[in-house]
Amino acid sequence: MVIMKTYSKLCTEFYDLEQHPNATQAHLFYMYHARQAKGSILEPMCGTGRFLIPMLQAGLDIQGFDASSHMLDALIKKYALVSAQAAPVWQQFLQEFSCDKRYQLMFIPYGSLGLITNYQDLKKSLAVMYEHLAVGGKCILEIETIASVPHPCGVWRRGSHTRPDGSKIVLNFLASYQPETQLFQSRSRYESVSDGVVIESEEELFQQHLCRFDELDMLLQDVGFPTIKKYAPYDADQPVDENTPIIIYECQK
Question: Where do the domains of the chain lie?
């Protein structure tokens, strides 16, 4: 059985406070495709609900799941502030997902698919998504490629976010990359700081598989997708090449 070793309490809170540099574009992009779906939507690896909650508020038929109980707890608490309904989410790994329902749209934004670092688990996850799409349904995946490796690696970096009460969450991390396995790693230490005093800390080893330019093409074809389109975020008319750090895959069953 797979065990979740990342996205614990402080990591989740740091993630939820962090603003993605293209947040507005991403929101408009995924909301557009969700409205076009005209049916049930599933967001595997839904995190703290950055996309799922606004889609629920827009009246869309969407469900989600995530492997991290801390991420789901954050999502559920946020959704409770805007709705009396229970959030339609549950805890699960993508490669273990199975149900009788078929979806018109499934999507994984922000490179989260790369958190599945085992090749067989990745291929099984793609097959699971294909299986649970309705005929004509669409799968949208946003991946990070080997061109996204930060330079230089091997140096400590630091980030922090301030909570509404003025206390902070501080992240110190050391990044590395293994070209032979395409594995990006970050040794991270999160600290909850109040009045200059560390009151709680948390360490994790973050790992992410970074894809080659054409690596996912072959996997998607192998699991059955007949139609695959890829482009730069978040513009379907923007082509990509070996130097593109982030690629959007739009696949139709």
Answer: 9-145+212-252, 148-209
Measured CA to CA in angstroms, residue 177 lies from 32, 154, 207 at distances of 35, 9, 10
**Fold annotation for 9-145+212-252:** Rossmann fold (3.40.50)
pLDDT above 60 for 127:
yes
Q: Which of these ranges, 4-13, 99-108, 156-165, 235-244, has the smallest mean pLDDT? A: 4-13
Q: Which amino acid is at 42?
A: L
Which one-letter DSSP state was computed for residue 121? Answer: H
The pair of three-digit structure tokens given for residue 131, joined into one six-digit string: 């299986």
Strand ranges (E), the chain: 41-44, 62-66, 89-91, 103-108, 133-144, 156-162, 168-178, 183-194, 197-209, 227-231, 246-252
pLDDT (0 to 100) of residue 21 = 83
